[in-house]
Amino acid sequence: MTKPILVNDLTKTFETPAGALNVLDGISIEVAIGESLVVVGPSGSGKSTFLHIVGTLDEPTSGTVRLSGQNPFDLDEPRLAEFRNRNIGFVFQEHHLLPQLTARENVLIPRVPRGDADEAAAKRAGELLERVGLGQRLDHRPGHLSGGERQRVAVARALMNEPKILLADEPTGSLDKVNADAIGELLLELHREYQLALVCVTHNDELAARFGRLVRLDTGRFVEL
Ligand code: ADP
Ligand code: MG
Q1: How many helices (H) and strands (E) does the chain have?
Q2: Using a 6 Å cutoff on CB, does residue 47 contact ligand 1?
Q3: Would you place residue 1 in the very low, low, confident or very high pLDDT band (cuts 50, 70, 90)?
Q4: Which of the two ends of the chain, N or C, has the fewest CB atoms closer than 10 A to its terminal CB?
Q5: What is the mean pLDDT of residues 57-79?
Q6: Which atom of ligand 1 is found nearest the CA of 43?
Q7: Contact between residue 39 and residue 204 where contact means Cβ atoms under 8 Å apart
Q8: Residue 27 near residue 225 (C-beta atoms within 8 A)
Q9: Ion ligand 2: residues, Cβ under 5 Å
Q10: CB atoms within 10 A of CB 165
């Protein structure tokens, strides 16, 4: 079984004016292709810290992270940015769409650093938008989309470069219940359809219960639920 995410004995300590803050204290987890893992835990327990490190947006204090067979922290910054761009899709609580671009152009953004935001890519962006239910909204700007629709665009954008790893940090946290349920269901469907390793952080208990694996972050460690 291929495991795009291998985390071993991960720790993270922040140096603060008040002293060292040990947020992650020895986390080990493996997530295979086609698996969905949800991380729950109280606010401030380190869920985003964990997800940022798995997403290579922050470095571990100790321990190892291997993503798709690579230790990303061995790479220099330009190579790391390229690695992240090709291998990892992100969905955050806020959609972070660019307001001046259309839905389709926003979905194309991950192609820009690769220099191949060409016609084939635009076609794929359109297909992804169709897949997330926005086939009739390709040329809408974010300001003319609902909150749920904007988050759908963000999901399509995360998949633009065909990553094997999809990370979502409270993806339904800014949505009403109907849209939250729909986005949660969409993420789970897409991870099965594209055979992704999905890791999601959420406060939404109903959503968490639908994932294949559930862990709680408790004083810096994972407790399997
Ligand atoms: P969660 O996502 O579970 O709410 P976070 O991972 O955002 O929690 O934060 C965990 C703890 O680490 C919090 O106490 C937070 O204040 C602290 N923290 C997060 N990032 C930093 C940072 N860059 N520097 C110092 N402390 C941080
Ligand atoms: Mg958080």
Answers
A1: 7, 9
A2: yes
A3: low
A4: N
A5: 97
A6: 4
A7: no
A8: no
A9: 48
A10: 22
Q: How far apart are CA 3 and CA 92, in angstroms?
A: 23
3 vs 111: CA distance, rounded Å: 25
Residue pLDDT, tens place only, 168-218 = 999 999 999 999 999 999 999 999 999 999 999 998 889 999 999 999 999
Strands (E), the chain: 5-16, 19-31, 36-40, 62-67, 88-91, 165-169, 197-201, 213-218, 221-224
What are the tens digits of pLDDT across the range 96-113?
Answer: 999 999 999 999 999 999
Residue 19 beta carbon below 6 angstroms from any ligand 1 atom: no
Enter the pTM of the model: 0.96
Cα of 12 vs centre of ligand 1, distance in Å, is 10
Ligand 2 mean position to 137 CA, how many Å?
A: 30
The predicted-structure confidence for 6-33, as pLDDT tens digits, reads as follows 999 999 999 999 999 999 999 999 999 9
Question: Which of these, 187, 203, 124, lies nearest to 152 by C-alpha position?
Answer: 187
Q: What's the gap in Å between 44 CA and the centre of ligand 1?
A: 6
Q: Is the CB of residue 44 below 6 angstroms from any atom belonging to ligand 1?
A: yes
The verdict on the CB of residue 136 being under 6 Å from ligand 1 is no
Which listed ligand is nearest to 40 at the C-alpha? 1
Q: How many whole angstroms from 49 Cα to the centroid of ligand 1? A: 6
- Contacts with 219 (C-beta within 8 Å, 6 or more apart), sequence order: 25, 45
Q: How far is the CA of 214 from the centre of ligand 2 (A)?
A: 17
